[in-house]
Design a protein that fits this description.
This protein is of the alpha/beta class. 17% of the residues lie in helices and 47% in strands. It is built from 2 helices and 8 strands, in the order E-H-E-E-E-E-H-E-E-E. The strands form 2 sheets. Strands 4-5-2-3-8 form a 5-stranded mixed sheet. The protein has a 3-stranded mixed sheet with strand order 1-6-7. The mean pLDDT is 83.
Length: 101
């Protein structure tokens, strides 16, 4: 798995690391019933025992097993003042499976 940060995201992460007491973590927000919608965000949270840690320019980014399975092999993190941190590409699936017995 490869995590890349744009210059804007790297600069903002370094600023936030000076005031935050926790590490950055990529988190997946999953919603849906029949289909699925996944949106990724960057949060500052405590370390968890089974986290995967990816280091980028001296910043350790943590990913839990649940979130990791939804991320692409290459994930980019960007930052804008309007939207904050933008992690990878969110996706939606409308695939429904019905089992007929």
């Amino acid at each position: 798995m490869v995590i890349t940060l744009t210059d804007a995201a790297l600069k903002k992460l370094k600023e936030k690391m000076l005031v935050e007491q926790h590490s950055p973590r990529i988190d997946a927000d999953i919603a849906g019933g029949c289909g699925i919608s996944v949106k990724f965000s960057l949060v500052f949270d405590e370390s968890r025992r089974n986290d995967t840690v990816i280091e980028y320019d001296e910043i350790q980014i943590r990913i839990d097993k649940f979130t990791k399975r939804y991320l692409d092999e290459e994930t980019q993190i960007d930052y804008s003042d309007e939207q904050g941190f933008l992690v990878g590409e969110s996706f939606e699936s409308s695939a429904c499976s019905i089992e007929i017995i």
